[in-house]
Amino acid sequence: MSETSEPTVQPITLSWWVSGDTNAFFGLGFNTLVNVLTLSGLCLAVVNIPGSDVFGVILPALGVQLLIGNVYYTYLARRLARREGRTDVCAMPYGPSVPHMFIVVFVIMLPVYLQTKNPLTAWAAGLAWSFIIGVIVLLGAFVGPFIRRYTPQAAMLGTLAGVSIAFISMRPAAQMWEALWIALPVMVIILIGFFTDLRLPGNIPVGLAALLVGTAIGWIGGYMSAPDVVTAAKDVALSLPTADLGRLGDGLADVAPLLATAIPLGIYNFTEGMTNIESAAVAGDEYNMRAILAADGTGAIVGSVLGCPFPPAVYIGHPGWKAAGGRTTYSLASGVVIALMCFLGLFGLLGAILPTPAIVPILLYIGLLIGAQAFQETPRRHAVAVVIAIIPNIASWAAGLMDNALSAAGTSAAQVGDEALTNAGLVYHGTVLLGGGAILAGLVLGSITAFVIDKNFFAAAAYSAIGAVVGFFGLIHAPQVGWNVGGQIALGYLFAAVVLGVFGLVVRRRGVGGDGVRTDQPVAADLVGAEPGEGVPTPRHAAEPAAAPIDLSDGPGRPATA
């Protein structure tokens, strides 16, 4: 009597460091470096938080966040590598969320500061907001796998591409063009190093070479100032984080106004995490979603208790760092180095030494890579779904740009008036609505479109109904959350659901239509009707999920999960 069993995975020797980790370390490290320098400047210049608090409290707390996430993600990567017997597993990148750092400053802390004239009160409001974000992300860790299973891959990667183009790429690209004589040589080195098979002389890491060249050009060309370096060096000092529940409690005392943005942006955070996990799965590394999102939520909560109002996130860009040669340890090394810089108060000094145009091209590289992946890794017929998922994020970026410009002029859209804005060629109100809850809106619109293309009209109708519900409460296409804040939006989605349902009945009677949910799809079952090899990753052998030490498994029912 014979027995069948699953093939056993041969034990492997897993290195702690490979040559590609050096490339990815410098790339992710510079990415995180730019973000920390940016959020430091926002705290100092916009909210007027004292420098002693920024460099002595906020950044050390951020350093703890980085250690928590990067240590845990390295553990998950090495666990996955051993379970699957692979040496090419790449850890998920992790750091402060870029969109959130602007939102918490301009939407949460700045209004409180302008009202109270007290930067510490504004800081406390930011801490409370970040704490709420963390709680929502923890809850999302348990519903995320279900959402992922029934969401088309084109919608998930498309909305991620929208974030990368609008919020990750556009600002760095603009900063590059302000000093293109520094930035473009850096960008060219990055393109050669990461998008061709050529090696740099002496096999020097691409990120390091790019930074050295850009810094040299900046200093030789007179872009930088030596006295600024001397001044910044005086502020270097060791600061270790300590918990301050009183400061967090002050912010939570008036929590109601924070919910209007915390709820949709908490959903945004775990939705973005889902799409990044999907992106990693397409690149060959399928992580346990609950484990990844639990680390994000925990990092935000711990950081807010210690004094950091900037929630962390699993970063866009896993495929880029994997393509650059990153494996299980590059993210950990980056997190440790940046954390040490936070503890030692080195960021003021670094900002005085490194030209911004020499650093920001790495962000544009990430945007290019993720935008391309959305089209390369989904069926060709779903290209329209990818594009429509991108559009809400562009609208969100454009709306923010208009609001910031009006604010800088000492006015607002309400003061200027719809007629004047329309006469200037701006569809202001529609742009704001289209961009509200952009990540979630992109998922809904992309899913509807993908299912329509595949003639799976009942699934498309279901997503339209979901759009009606979340639109009614303002989670998408609205500037705030509340009861019936998006009535006309909900009505539009509801009418669309009716139309789609009617078409579903028609095609059912004719005996044609989509295939429904694909049970043989290892990621996002939801590439309905995809042809073999068209946008569908090659299935791997089944193995246990890359789970956390506690039980965070997706549970039964997810096919071919690695």
Automatic annotation (TrEMBL):
Region (Disordered): 528-562
Keyword Isomerase: no
Keyword set, alphabetical order: Membrane, Transmembrane, Transmembrane helix
Sequence intervals crossing the membrane: 24-47, 54-77, 97-114, 121-144, 150-168, 180-198, 204-224, 330-352, 358-375, 382-402, 426-445, 457-478, 490-507
Protein name: Xanthine/uracil/vitamin C permease
Organism listed in the record: Pseudonocardia dioxanivorans (strain ATCC 55486 / DSM 44775 / JCM 13855 / CB1190)
